[in-house]
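Amino Acid Chain and Its Fold in Token Form
===========================================
Scope: a single protein chain, as residues and as a discrete description of its fold.
Amino acid sequence: labelled as such and written in the usual single-letter residue code.
Position: the record begins directly beneath this header, with no further notes in between.
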Amino acid sequence: MTRPLLLAGALAGPLYVGIGTVEAIVRDGFDIRKHSLSLLANGTGGWVHSVMMVGTGLLTVIGAIGLAKCFAPGERSRWGVGGLIVYGAGVAAAGFMRADPALGFPPGTPDAMPETVSWHGFGHVIAGMIGFIGLIVACFVLSRWFGRHRAAGWSRFSLITGIVYLLALVGLGAAAGTTAGNLGFTVAVILGWTWITLLMLRARAEGSLR
């Protein structure tokens, strides 16, 4: 059962990035330089983005369960696998709780941040933050794990992904709604999903992480 679990985890990234890209292109009024992808859950067709987040989050959790089976006895990285489970669960939970309309999206929304935050908007932010922290932890922990097992390339890849995600998350908090903040975080999201996909495919192809 391990290979199907890992394949499910590997599919999460392409689905998230692919569907999100199509949405960003076809949804009227959406501008990636100004709007976060989470805003796509609003307006006509917003359900597509919500379902995508829930689905890819759950696929990530499934993949992480498969990944846990790829460690040699006594070498399982609980924090690495746990971080991925937290990330997947956070993405799925954020999909259930829609971000508040903001910055002119969907069309007709005031061109500013909302004056008040709804319960689901607040929950979306908290779930996302917890998930992002889980991914960062997974990157750093698995970087160290790969380093101990002389997989220098994967150690560096994991470390760089974690650092980029951490810097982008901090930058988003400081520059939300700006072109630099949005594009920087978008790059981090794509890199994070790429890391997860390649990690799952590596484990699936070799049958282990050694």
The mean pLDDT is 91. The chain has one domain: 2-206.
